[in-house]
Write a structure and sequence with these properties.
The protein has 190 residues and is of the alpha+beta class. It has 6 helices and 6 strands. Strand 5, helix 5 and strand 6 form a beta-alpha-beta unit.
């Protein structure tokens, strides 16, 4: 998701229409025989890639689709060097995300960009987003690597911030909402 905070809520400016980028990388990694998590292993192999292999680039408005990219990359495993395929997969996937991020930064005029999540550990993605931030006079930040992939830590931190701002819920009223969207949550601690 590409989001920006405004008027007490995070607004979604772009999101995946199918699978998340981290999931796409992990599935591809398994297909080429790498153990989970695959993102860092793909990053290492991509550094050895020399030839760009054309793969589907799917940005629809401000939303992204990674399923076609994944399918196309998997279909080329037998005919391409794995290093070239990892390089190409990364370049296309990250360029899609960078495009949407740049448009969101230009639209909102925000002066900070924060990269989070497990894929946020990837140095190539960090470099792309850092360049966009520089071009738009925005400061660029990356969540600490040791917290990047731990959803439990992110959920706990959010709960602590909510609690410290006076936002609580009884155990009887609490439940998992699998379709609860980020932009539906009122943020009282910012």
């Amino acid at each position: 998701m590409v989001t920006a905070f405004d008027e007490g809520r995070y607004r979604v400016f772009g999101e995946t229409l199918d699978i998340a980028i981290g999931n796409m990388l992990d599935v591809f990694a398994r297909e080429i025989g790498l153990q989970h998590p695959g993102g860092s292993k793909i990053e290492r192999l991509a550094k050895e890639g020399k030839n760009f292999i054309p793969l589907p680039y799917t940005v629809k408005g401000m939303d992204l689709s990674y399923s076609g990219l994944l399918t196309a990359a998997i279909s080329k495993i037998e005919e391409c060097r794995v290093e070239d395929l990892c390089y190409s997969l990364q370049e296309v996937a990250f360029s899609m995300l960078a495009e949407v991020t740049e448009r969101a930064v230009a639209h909102t005029g925000k002066k900070e960009v924060l990269l989070t999540g497990g894929v946020g550990r990837n140095k190539r993605l960090q470099g792309m987003l850092q360049e966009i931030s520089r071009e738009h006079d925005a400061d660029f930040y990356v969540v600490p690597s040791n917290l990047a992939g731990d959803n439990g830590a992110m959920i706990a931190w959010t709960g602590l911030l909510a609690y410290m701002s006076g936002q609580t819920i009884s155990v009887e009223e609490s439940f998992v909402r699998p379709k609860w969207r980020l932009d539906e949550v009122e943020i009282t601690w910012i």
